[in-house]
């Protein structure tokens, strides 16, 4: 597990010598699948049981660190919580234009919310921001694991393969906001993957500008940057 420091962002900490990396990560999915609770867990390290409706999009900025060898700088991570109801659809769509990564979130206890991710949210993200790093995320994994075998519908589905088919470079993660299981791993791996992918895109752009030919970024990126969770 990589080291992960959690704190509020303070721009007085930055300097020209060690300028932080800036990333924006959004969570999308149906209402009540646990998007806000997931972000609250990673921001505070605590579980928030009560529910409330997200209005449009709500943002929180953290300054995080990882000891991953790909980078040794502070990362200023802007987390965007999006509403899952239709009335805020236009606002959510506009917000997705400017993000570096997206967590496609569904409730493991509700197969319909997974179908919604496949048929609605994944297509929405692809239509407005096809180059962002997507990750498929199932919440309530702890409660799901306690269910009887006939109710554990994901047991008969290759979720890693489904994530790959959906173009999720971040693969598939099953997490629990209540217990905190795999939540930190999800965000650490996502931050690392987004930074690595952005660096790769920059190299592709530099190569094209220097006369290296036209590069099909969409086709090659799906092949080279698919990653699955090892939780």
Task: Describe this structure in a few short sentences.
It contains 7 helices and 6 strands. It has 231 residues and is α/β, with parallel strands linked by helices. The protein starts with 20 loop residues before the first strand and ends in a 7-residue tail after the last helix.
* Helix content percent band: 25-40%
End-to-end separation: 11 Å
Q: How much is the average pLDDT?
A: 80
Shape: globular
Largest sheet, described in full? 6 strands, mixed
Q: Rounded to an integer, what's the Rg over CA atoms?
A: 18 Å
Strand content: 15-25%
Adjacency order of strands in the biggest sheet: 2-3-1-4-5-6
Q: CATH homologous superfamily name?
A: P-loop containing nucleotide triphosphate hydrolases
Q: Which structural class is indicated by helix and strand composition?
A: alpha/beta
Q: Helical stretch count?
A: 7
CATH class category label: Alpha Beta
Q: How many strands appear in the DSSP assignment?
A: 6
What is the CATH third-level topology name? Answer: Rossmann fold
| CATH-level-2 architecture | 3-Layer(aba) Sandwich
């Amino acid at each position: 597990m990589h080291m992960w420091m959690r704190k509020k962002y303070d721009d007085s900490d930055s300097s020209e010598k060690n300028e932080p990396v800036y990333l924006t990560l959004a969570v999308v999915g149906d209402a009540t699948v646990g998007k806000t609770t997931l972000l609250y867990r990673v921001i505070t390290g605590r579980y928030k049981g009560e529910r409330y409706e997200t209005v449009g999009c709500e943002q929180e900025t953290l300054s995080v660190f990882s000891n991953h060898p790909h980078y040794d700088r502070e990362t200023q991570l802007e987390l965007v919580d999006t509403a899952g109801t239709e009335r805020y659809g236009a606002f959510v769509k506009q917000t997705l234009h400017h993000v570096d990564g997206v967590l496609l979130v569904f409730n493991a206890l509700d197969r319909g919310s997974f179908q919604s991710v496949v048929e609605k949210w994944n297509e929405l993200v692809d239509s407005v921001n096809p180059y962002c790093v997507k990750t498929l995320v199932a919440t309530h994994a702890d409660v799901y694991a306690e269910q009887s075998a006939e109710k554990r519908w994901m047991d008969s589905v290759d979720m890693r393969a489904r994530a790959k088919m959906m173009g999720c470079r971040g693969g598939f993660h099953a997490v629990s906001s209540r217990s905190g299981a795999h939540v930190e791993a999800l965000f650490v791996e996502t931050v690392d993957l987004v930074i690595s992918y952005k660096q790769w895109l920059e190299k592709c752009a530099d190569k094209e500008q220097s006369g290296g030919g036209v590069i099909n970024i969409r086709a090659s990126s799906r092949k080279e940057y698919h990653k699955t969770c090892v939780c």
